[in-house]
Amino acid sequence: MPIRDARRIYPGGNKDNRLDLLRDKASKDIPRFIRQNLRIIAGREAGKPQLVPLIPNWSQDQVLEVIHTQDKNGMPVRIIVLKSRQVGISTITSAYIYSKCWAENNTHALVMSNSDKTANNIFEMYQRFGLHLPPQLQLPMQRSNKQEILWASEIGSKIQVVTAGSPESARSRTPRHVQLSECGMYTKMAAVKAALEAGIPNVVGTSIILESTALGAGTDFHLTWQAAREGDGHYKCVFLEWFKDPACQTMEFPDQRTQDLYLEKVFDKYPQLKDRQEYFQLTPRQIAWYYEILHNDYQGDTLIMASEFPCTEQEAFRATGSLVFPLELMDQYRDKQRPAERYDPLMPFTCIADMTKSKYLRPNQDAYMDIWIEPQEGREYLIVADPAAGLQGSDYSCLYVMDIATQCIAATVHGRIAIKPFAKIIKKLGKIYKDAVLMPEVDGLGAALLEELKEDYFHIYFQRKDEGYGEKTTNKLGWETNQKSKLMCAGLARTQLTEKRELGGAFMPDIHLYEELANLTEEDLAGKSKAITDRAMAFIIGLQGCMHELKSRPDLALTIENSKMGAESPTKLTPESILKMIKDKNYVHGQPYDQDAFDLGGPFIPSAEGLYNLGDGI
């Protein structure tokens, strides 16, 4: 790249003052400087590349707006961008960082990419920004090669573009601006990010921009996004929905008949797209655009398409691979979450009234308790518990309080909690929830948890043994998890969730549980992944426990009769009739819900009328 010097443009020594004024003006309005002075190559896809001004598209504008707002408000720029494919976020981030280094003296920037090829492409873009600046804006350069742009000593700014490597290599650098491009692909993203953050002061005039597509659940990028969404750290989340971008639509149809025939073909080939169009209120041109990419670029793979062009954050991070719960099934539970009252489980309590409320506790960071339904008279509950060591960096302890008759979640506790305090929490909740049945997982650390529970709590789940024609209650306490039992629980959960949806009772109050279930894969069940699955596994085990209790104690189902709302039931339920219903081959596990019978956070009561219609002769 030729070394240019604007002193040629301003003879007589007037150049320095005028250029300093231009640089100072640019530093205060970076978006305007980008639009007026930076150039990119466009048209490569059509085979006609040409140099054009960088006019930000919709997605780029969203990112620029967040950056400019943080800058203008005197805040250090800290954002994490979850993007779709090929929307130009790396380009606009590079443009921002280049502009900052051009406008401000002694400004060092570091750009990391996931591969050598991508790093080279990004570096060429940085070179192009400088090469095609207007002549009056050229600054003296020292060098621009070997992945480094270095301005002359009186400017002192530089930009380095490297491939993401070990955390040690990042730890030795002290830039003021950092761009981590496609950081979801880094092998050690969390360690690299932590090493860089240690060298960058959290002050105005610095920036750290993380941007990537999702690439599945349980990754460092996913965990970083979740932490930022929950308010951990200083990062602002920017999720770019493809359907809000005006460019993501086909050309107008020539007439209504052509449009109708085209959409008929689309929905005939991919019926699920009609549900997607209705749910997200997509226009015919938008769903046609989505179909063209799905059909031509992804060969009809709806799972990958949903990950590459997500409509929601949860969909973006949905795991690839063999999902336990089908995409279409989990979509029915997408907006079934309910608000909960949040408490600190590590503070002393004896009842719900003296629990310590703390709405600032962060899921996956702090130990917390969420309560959706307080204990109801006449109801019977089960508490399923999956323990962990409670150490920093270890797995999480998790429990769910579930209504046995309806399998509805009443409360949850989650966090890194050691065995003894976790046991105390379980026993206290067991007493609060009407002497609930405790169902601890007894493998590994669960054996220690069981010993703690047995000391002074006697309503503990007994294991069942499959004897071919039925199940026998054994004298062993707790739940043993193995590959066979995992598959059995997953199969029951899939059936339960499907039937509840078909009966109009689709309900899942915990958003974090929804995310884990939506991303649960067969590899997770086999223990071959590092994804967080403690909530999902606790829930599906709890479903199994509820059905075991309901089958072996048919009197529990009388709580449905006792809690029914509305008109008197046409038939009186008895333990004998419940047992007959359960043994009937047409019996459907799980009960429908009367969703209109309560307000948010109120008691969840199953519809007795729906129950009567499930079995013959009831």
Characterize this entry briefly.
The protein is α/β, with parallel strands linked by helices and 618 residues long.
Query: How would a textbook summarize the main sheet?
Result: 8 strands, mixed
| Estimated share of beta-strand residues | 15-25%
| Residue runs with pLDDT of under 50 for 5 or more positions | 1-13, 563-570, 587-618
Helical segment count? 23
Specify the structural class: alpha/beta
Mean pLDDT: 82
- Rounded Rg: 29 Å
3D shape: globular
Query: What proportion of the residues is helical, as a percent range?
Result: 25-40%
Number of strands: 18
Distance between the termini: 85 Å
The side-by-side strand order for the widest beta sheet comes to 5-6-7-4-8-9-3-10
Structural write-up:
The chain starts with 14 loop residues before the first helix and ends in a 6-residue tail after the last helix. With about 625 residues, the chain is an alpha/beta fold. About 40% of the residues lie in helices and about 15% in strands. The longest helix is centred in the C-terminal third of the chain and has 20 residues, at about 485-500. The strands form four sheets. It has an eight-stranded mixed β-sheet, sandwiched between helices. It is built from 23 helices and 18 strands.
